[in-house]
Amino acid sequence: MESFQFNHNVAYALLFSPVNNPGKIKQRIINAAKATGSEGNEEREAVNFSFIDASLITSRLHLETAIHQAIIAESQGLLRTKTIHSEILFALNPTNNITEAIRRYGVSDTSNALFVVHIVDSPGPISDLEIKMKQAVDGTMVPFDELAKVTDWDKIEKYHKLANEVMEKGDAVQARTFIDNVAISSVAMKSVMQ
Amino acid sequence: MTISLSQNLIRSSLPIAQGAEAKVYKAHLTPESPPILLKYRFQKDYRHPFLNANLTRSRIAGEARAILKCLRSGVHVPGIRMVDATDGVLGIEWIEGQSLRRLLPGGAEDDGSDNVDNVDSMDTDILKEYGVSVDELMKLIGIEIAKMHRVDVIHGDLTTSNMMLRRPESFTSSDPNVTTELVLIDFGLSYQSTLTEDKAVDLYVLERAFASTHPDSEPLFAKVLAGYAETTGGNWPAIKHRLDDVRLRGRKRSMVG
């Protein structure tokens, strides 16, 4: 389990690749949102994570920045979406369209690799959390380094509208450093985007 | 009142410098994260809190937007790492390197006036570490400003203090001959404009900064303009013409108001 120890909060994250049940996870989140009563609460608790399509994440810092901005927004009562976990998806998307953010960056039927993130106020026992994450996702848990194999640079380039700029870069390494920096910066400044 | 998240981050950060508008810190978002630079626009007690919050928010927003626009267009600027407009905190990529002011003759603060005639030996010594000559450096300045002006961003405060050279150890390039990168910093006074006048004034401000910080800098600045002209292309004659006008009258166009 990877952790991001911010000053105020801690975020725990696992990377799954491949994922065998993306469609089911998505359906489960939708159903949990609609369910009522104590059963509904339980079900919501079982999927109380941010499920992020890992193919759209460029680096650990990219993910960390999105989590951090979501934490800032929540601490100031400035969430643009319903929960801190959906706010991460909103922060990742370069536009202000919430539906689009969830469709693109959240879990979808075609998701092959997923980050599962949970934000808490203070560090706690992670064994329970890890079990809950593994119960929600049918897939192989891999180290964060594996992200390099799943990142879909062409798609990220398209979402950030960087095709012309990338063409001017000398080689693939330079192009990726560039896309990574733009993606991180866009996430960081999302709250003051025009 | 409880301490906000960003305030808490600042408390655990290392103070670097303070100016009239902001304080600057070196921080880490998490213990494993790369360092970032925090620019904290602190509360001005002489301003009404409401006005203060609005001004701070719009300035942070303006600075972040200018940086992202430059970054997307391939201008060398630090990436953005966090924004908390409510608390007045802007976090940007930490650049491992040095300000140009300290790398050019006359700019070092502890540099006595007695070694002014020793100019050539001293600057080549410091710059050798970065693998560039003074002439190459001047050209880099011109190119970077031209790239920024090409996307209609006006820096507003071009000085050699607001430019940095990346240390070769922390810089990788596909071209082995390129050992460093000139980075433009501090977009706190920047704005967007397509006007030739604004671009000419931007250059004029830098020319004055050169003249007042670095002795005998006329030939140096000429090389900055040469680099700028080359990158600007067709728009250069108009800007050059306007720069000549600005030199005669100063940076304020109108003598009234």
Structural commentary:
- The complex is a heterodimer of chains A (194) and B (257).
- Chain A has 194 residues and is of the alpha+beta class.
- Chain A has a single domain, classed as 2-Layer Sandwich (PF0523-like), CATH 3.30.2380.10.
- Chain A is 51% helix and 15% strand.
- Chain B has 257 residues and is of the alpha+beta class.
- Chain B has eight helices and ten strands.
- In chain B, a hairpin with an 8-residue loop joins strand 2 and strand 3.
- The longest helix of chain B is centred in the first third of the chain and has 24 residues, at 49-72.
- The chains are: A alpha+beta (194), B alpha+beta (257).
- Chains A and B meet through helix 3 and helix 10 of A and helix 1, helix 2 and strand 4 of B.
Quick overview:
The complex is a heterodimer of chains A (194) and B (257). By secondary structure, chain A is an alpha+beta fold.
